[in-house]
Amino acid sequence: MRGKALLSNTLLSTALAAAICLCAAPGASADPLSGTSGFYVNPGSAPAAWVAAHPSDPRAAGIQSAIASRPIARWFGDDGGDIGSEVSSYVGAANSHGKVPVLVAYDIPDRDVCGGYSGGGASSVGAYESWISSFAAGIGSRPAVVVIEPDALSDYSCLTAAQQSSRTAMLLFATQMFQKKASDTWAYLDAGHTNWVAPATMAGELKAAGVANVRGFAVNVSNFYTTGSSETYAGSVNASLGGTSHFVVDTSRNGNGSDGEWCNPSGAKLGTAPQAGGGADLLLWVKTPGVSDGQCGTAPGTPAGTFDPALAVALINGS
């Protein structure tokens, strides 16, 4: 992808909720952190699956401790299955442990049109609307956090005017579905990163896509810009929105900041572990650390979306 690809272990939500502004934006849902005990750690994440399959590998213990044991978002696209059931099962597993799952909806038509490494998505507008409606319904009234369609707004420069209009309408529909069908979800439209789309331009795109229907927007998804620069960018976007929105920052790989490269760059490092508060609603690991951005950079032989233990170790060491 262009800028992406496909809590500490104990987070006491009652203590951390005080660090979040809970003033409701138009269309905002209830607080999913209230009454839960932190973010859900997916036992089936790519790093966890690799560790389970390679228990004797000398890298396994470090990857388990630094990455697999952390709350990481689970990405959902159209895998040919029943998306509503898949989402419901995952949210139900988190709910059974009193945890909040973090999910990514990633199936917009012409997905990753600029970067190309994670291309795909729904085959038509109708197929997407059915998919995202079922996604939201799969969550229902249970608590969750969702990032909606990474790259979708930032990729507008690679779309025709007609494609842009169609995409805006699909994203608007998506926000309406989360507003209507997922009453205890904080959903965030993706808004790119610090060095991609001008804040005022992004604010206009977010507004047209229905950001007022959901909690707010996400920045730095699958990218490397520091939390501080990401919060500054998000603050400028929010100012252009009238200061009524909220945002989250992906800190999965921003420990050393960005050198301008987005595809498996050298020198990247894990960032702050997922948590609530600060200048953002939440700091999240949206991108799975160790999963390749594409066949490029320091992992030219690893396809996008594939876990690479060498990439994971490099992120742990910051090398």
From TrEMBL:
It holds the Pfam family Glyco_hydro_6. PROSITE patterns: GLYCOSYL_HYDROL_F6_2. Residues 1-30 form the signal peptide. GO terms for molecular function: hydrolase activity. Keywords: Carbohydrate metabolism, Cellulose degradation, Disulfide bond, Glycosidase, Hydrolase, Polysaccharide degradation, Signal. It comes from Streptacidiphilus alkalitolerans. Gene3D superfamilies: 1, 4-beta cellobiohydrolase (3.20.20.40). The active site is at D151. Belongs to the glycosyl hydrolase family 6. It comes from the Bacteria. Its EC number is 3.2.1.-. InterPro entries: Beta_cellobiohydrolase (IPR016288), Beta_cellobiohydrolase_sf (IPR036434), Glyco_hydro_6_CS (IPR001524). It is an enzyme of class 3 (hydrolase). This is Glucanase.
